[in-house]
Amino acid sequence: MAKQKRGKQSFIPEIQPVITAWASVAGKKEGEGPLGKTFDVVCQDSYFGQKTWEQGEKRLQQLALETLVKKAGLKETQLDLVYSGDLLNQCIGSSFSLRNTGIPHLGLYGACSTMAESLLLAAMTVGGGYGDRVVAMTSSHFASSERQYRFPLGYGGQRTPTAQWTVTGSGAALVCAEGKGPVIESCTVGTVQDLGIMDANNMGAAMAPAAFNTIRAHFRDLGSAPEDYDLIVTGDLGQMGKEMLLELARLEGLSLGGRLTDCGTLVFDNTVQDVHAGGSGCGCSAITLCGDLLNKLESGKLKRILFCGTGALLSPTSTQQGLPIPGVCHAVSILSGRN
Amino acid sequence: MAKQKRGKQSFIPEIQPVITAWASVAGKKEGEGPLGKTFDVVCQDSYFGQKTWEQGEKRLQQLALETLVKKAGLKETQLDLVYSGDLLNQCIGSSFSLRNTGIPHLGLYGACSTMAESLLLAAMTVGGGYGDRVVAMTSSHFASSERQYRFPLGYGGQRTPTAQWTVTGSGAALVCAEGKGPVIESCTVGTVQDLGIMDANNMGAAMAPAAFNTIRAHFRDLGSAPEDYDLIVTGDLGQMGKEMLLELARLEGLSLGGRLTDCGTLVFDNTVQDVHAGGSGCGCSAITLCGDLLNKLESGKLKRILFCGTGALLSPTSTQQGLPIPGVCHAVSILSGRN
């Protein structure tokens, strides 16, 4: 078997990739939420100084990357590679943000699992000796998502209780072969799960089976168990999806209770922010990881987490054609830099 | 510097990845073209037995993967990972084709560069010891692309002379740590180039600068030159873009003449098939590589090629908002299995 592979879906990088810096940029509503103080930049302008929301999302990623290299004390030209993707059709948030920067770029599509997917690939790249400084980045924007996936905002459509609120935000993490910071210990690649969920306003339900499958595969491949982790963090199932994941795990005798949390339930305070089932979007798990979670891993408040990015792989076209919603989840185990 | 990295944008895998099998599935028009006999499957039905073109594209990828594992004498459960992506919004061709197969999957978005991007990542995965059997796959479909990017087909819109014809096809390559077949020698990751091309009907012009940048970076990083290759194959600049690339190279004193060809000019016979500037779409370079090119590398007719996947990173939204078209190109150097 390949030397860095473990079990069916997982790998342990030979050179331990270190997350030496991280940056998060968030919108106004996210800045008012429980994690507001953990973001590097909070913008009051939903256009981020641009003419359109889509270009605003591009600017979000530019700001995240600029903040990241500044925090790391680097120049953009010192980066070996950027893995990034977003929810916009043809991922224009990512590709437009990197225009003429001269930074090598590989584009991803993993829906809301993109923060975990990009982190996993950055770990693979650094761990295999293909690069010394690799960035994992993603974004989402409430307004660009609403008009692309749902209704024009001016239409004022009612939201269902299971609907989630797309986070306006971008997160970026710098994965290096050397340096200080939280360490990527192992990764698990997900499979596409489709249990026939048809409701595009209940994406937590569509993603929960994928989350369960990947978490189970991770424990199986690495010989670990929930109690080995301080936190198992999905991103983003929301309140409904999180409950479904707990139930799926309970039915298979896997107790996640007490350790499971979800970025969609952390990023907003639903008692005052009225986001229904919680936050969502690539940016949701990105700003939660590249703020609160990595800060706590750096300080030693968290010793070890399993970061599980979950994505609903639907499109408006697939929904209009009456098709169910496949889900995917990729998991990254991260250790505190301090022992 | 990272041990497998070469120069700014390139790498040489430590374990030489071998392309042990490849498969191509094409539509009727492609089957009637100059490469018709090199495809494993040619379907006369543009729906591929499905109810919609988008689902037909999903079926295209399923057929390519089924044909690939059959040719390789494997079962799908023996695959370690599939890298795939397509042009459909949210890449539903790729994710729906892998539903409930149990195969680990990482989704990509690189527009028409996806065959090269997926092959490069498969080489990185196998070359770093993360997997033994990794698939690189992509697809495109003329009818699903036309209605998503341009006009409903029934509208009968006129095509400009610079327009390309999206190939209906899917190609898949199996990259292994052991076995016989063409070998992936080195890879070069592209940067996002934007020279301000605004015409969404002239994507060859938008991609040519990216192709030139990546080809130049490849020669610089690896210390090689055009004469070291039997063929430098872009995919897919079309006739106009190919001429622009030759001109860009000439201005910088790099002679590609005689060695440069383009998948968009190989896949159709423009004298009888009326495709204007040539073929395009992720499937164009995919079926040209996973048919004619790999067949010739296997037999020794070609000794060494530089396969350069080129992508135009636009979306209908970015075009409607008056933005230019960024391009990207990734290059993979492939050696004949026979010496």
Task: Give your account of this protein's structure.
Two copies of one chain form a homodimer. The first copy, chain A, is built from eleven helices and 15 strands. Chain A has 339 residues and is of the alpha/beta class. Chain A folds into two domains: 5-176, Peroxisomal Thiolase, Chain A, domain 1; 183-335, Stage V sporulation protein AD (Peroxisomal Thiolase, Chain A, domain 1, 3-Layer(aba) Sandwich). In chain A, helix 3 (92-97) links the parallel strand 5 (81-86) and strand 6. In chain A, helix 6 packs across helix 7. The longest helix of chain A has 20 residues, at 53-72. The mean pLDDT of chain A is 96. At the A-B interface, helix 3, strand 6, helix 4 and helix 11 of A face helix 3, strand 6, helix 4 and helix 11 of B.
CATH topology of the largest domain in chain A: Peroxisomal Thiolase, Chain A, domain 1
Oligomer: homodimer
Question: What separation lies between the terminal Cα atoms of chain A?
Answer: 31 Å
Largest sheet features of chain A: 7 strands, mixed
The count of helical stretches of chain A stands at 11
Mean pLDDT over all positions of chain A: 96
**Strand elements of chain A, count:** 15
Shape type of chain A: globular
Helix content of chain A: 25-40%
CATH architecture of the largest domain in chain A: 3-Layer(aba) Sandwich
User: Would you identify the CATH H-level superfamily of the largest domain in chain A?
Assistant: Stage V sporulation protein AD
Q: In which order are the strands of the major sheet of chain A placed?
A: 1-2-10-15-14-11-12
Report the radius of gyration of chain A as a whole number of Å.
Answer: 18 Å
Low-confidence blocks of residues of chain A: none
Strand content of chain A: 15-25%
CATH class of the largest domain in chain A, named Alpha Beta
Structural class from helices and strands of chain A? alpha/beta
Give the SSE string of chain A.
Answer: EEEHEHEHEHEHEEEHEHEHHEHEHE
